[in-house]
Design a protein that fits this description.
The chain contains 3 helices and 4 strands, in the order H-H-E-E-E-E-H. By secondary structure, it is α+β, with helices and mostly antiparallel strands. The chain is elongated.
Length: about 130
């Protein structure tokens, strides 16, 4: 009786075994550097506010104010205490995210020059009137 030889099954098996091995440190480092670069760009776009002064290229994002990381060291949450959101002049369509109404610290919201439906905007304004202005 001859053995059945199926060489194409070796590759998927090898890939499964490799997937179970820990990722090389270099790959993890690149991801951390990418997150750091993105967050530093966000800081710059926000006008380098003093509240996130701890965000700098010489420290890890997990040590920064308002940044929470998971067990693997990747950024999982940002808490910036939003007070001002400018979404104007983007021609956004669709729904205004209802979660915006949960931003109790929000004081200014610009929605001009977008394509939101008037009835939706009116309903949203009625909802946010409950904010503590």
């Amino acid at each position: 009786m001859s053995k059945l030889h199926i060489p194409f099954l070796r590759t998927p098996l090898l890939l499964c075994v490799l997937a179970l091995l820990p990722l090389p440190f270099k790959v993890i480092s690149q991801d951390a550097n990418t997150e750091k670069t993105i967050l530093l760009n966000l800081k710059q776009q926000l006008g380098n506010p003093p509240s996130i002064q701890s965000w700098n290229s010489s420290s890890l994002p997990c040590t920064w104010t308002g940044v929470t990381c998971g067990d693997d060291g990747s950024v999982t949450e940002l808490d910036l205490g939003l007070r001002y959101i400018h979404l104007g002049a983007n021609n956004f369509t669709g729904n205004i995210p209802p979660q915006i109404a949960n931003l109790t610290g929000l004081r200014t919201l610009f929605l001009h020059q977008n394509q939101f439906k008037v009835k939706e905007v009116e309903a949203f304004v009625d909802e946010i009137r409950e904010f503590d202005w």
